[in-house]
Amino acid sequence: MEQGIAAPAVPDWFEARKTPRARIVARWVPWVMVGIPVLVLLAIVVYPTVWMAYHAFHDTNMMGLFTGRYAYVGWQNFANVLADPRFHNSVVNLAWYLTFGATLEVLLGTALALVLYELVPRPGLRVVLLVAMVLPMMLPPSIVGVLWKFLLQANNGAVNHLLINLGLMAPTERIDWLGVDLSLTSLIIADVWQWTALPLLIVYSGRVSLPPAVFEAARVDGASRFTVLRRLTLPMLKEIIAIAFILRFMDAYKFVDKVYVMTSGGPAQSSELPVFIAFQKGIREFQIGEAAAYAWLIFAVAAVLVTLFLQYLKRVLKAQAFA
Description:
The chain is mainly alpha-helical. The protein has a domain at 90-285 and 298-319: MetI-like (MetI-like fold, Orthogonal Bundle), CATH 1.10.3720.10. The protein has 16 helices and two strands.
């Protein structure tokens, strides 16, 4: 600053320090708002994960939990799980469920969302149909399991009686939906009935958010409905559909409630999934070590598959200039 020119006067209010009472938010408020969620996360996620990892390498059972004495067995629990034919059968069942359950839910939900948006012109009717399709998702899975268990009974089930009344079966014929051959298929039917609404909502929301100008330009150019669907709608919804599939894929690893209510993993272990075996080992048999090994194997496989799927999706989108 040049000499002889006085510095501009600073208002008193600018230099005055604000008192604690004048602050909009007290100093402790941010700490509480951030600290409480962190503590909850540590309590319900981090601590159980560490606890499970610890017991996966110990021969922990019910007596060990009460006495606090655990024998270190190294990788023995993982070796027992990988060598168990019951685990191998459950992995096959899981692959079957992912292929014909979760995939069918995403495909069916996508088709219903596009039909609802494209072919139902009245917004009021569209909302009513959307709410009706979403209602099964609002029911508790255990209640859905009980409902479908009664519907699929061999002798008195409504499904067999419906097939007889439609002339598709003889009056004396019965389909054992909950038997060895069809128990897993029955679980998939119940799950598809309940959870198709989730991909439906996700894809419908994505379709609503697409810019209408692109589709109007395609119609002006004379593109047919099928061409618009194949060249515009589905490519623009690829990421949304992938998210829906990942969500249903991850839920497949938590598929316990309907299995427990409808079949209890049977008959003859025909409908067991890995997570249900982990539940049985930990809750019923109190083999905490093997249950923890099951859980870690399920988590590792799911993490690897989801990572590979995301990388594949990123490469596809980048190749199509969407990423």
